[in-house]
Design brief:
136 residues; alpha/beta; Rossmann fold; 46% helix; 20% strand; globular
């Protein structure tokens, strides 16, 4: 439960979130991508080649190429198969209730979190991953 994929067009938030993950989970392996399109291509390549999927994906809502909802739509086709154990969180500065509702309408999404993440939230996400892995 140590592999993370961070998808955000803002370098500052990528840096901060990576830092919070490393504080909460020093053994974490973290891939950061500023392009949502490249992140989708990366995941599709992992699937195509049978490589291990990230344990957790943190995706921003507002991005220029594919927004977070479009990213989730792309992932949805794999959630019953190769991505079924991946924990996906929408991480955003948006406080709109409609954004939260839309994000949580994706049955596979684990949560909608406000930026920036703090150590406690990262620990909570990690603990949920461990708990669900134990139940598998």
């Amino acid at each position: 439960m140590n592999n993370y994929l961070l998808v955000d067009d803002d370098r500052t938030f990528l840096f901060l979130h990576e830092h919070m993950i490393r504080i909460a989970n020093p053994a974490a392996s973290i891939m950061s991508m500023q392009s949502s399109i490249k992140a989708v291509e990366y995941l599709e390549e992992l699937i195509k080649t049978g490589q291990e999927m990230p344990d957790c994906i943190l995706v921003d809502l507002n991005m220029p190429e594919l927004n977070g909802f479009e990213f989730l739509e792309n992932c949805s086709q794999y959630m019953a198969g190769p991505m079924r154990h991946v924990h996906i969180y929408m991480v955003t500065s948006s406080l709109h209730a409609s954004d939260r509702e839309k994000a949580l309408s994706f049955s596979f999404i684990k949560g909608f979190r406000e930026k920036p993440l703090n150590k406690e939230i990262v620990i909570e996400m990690h603990d949920l991953m461990l708990k669900e892995k134990d139940q598998q």
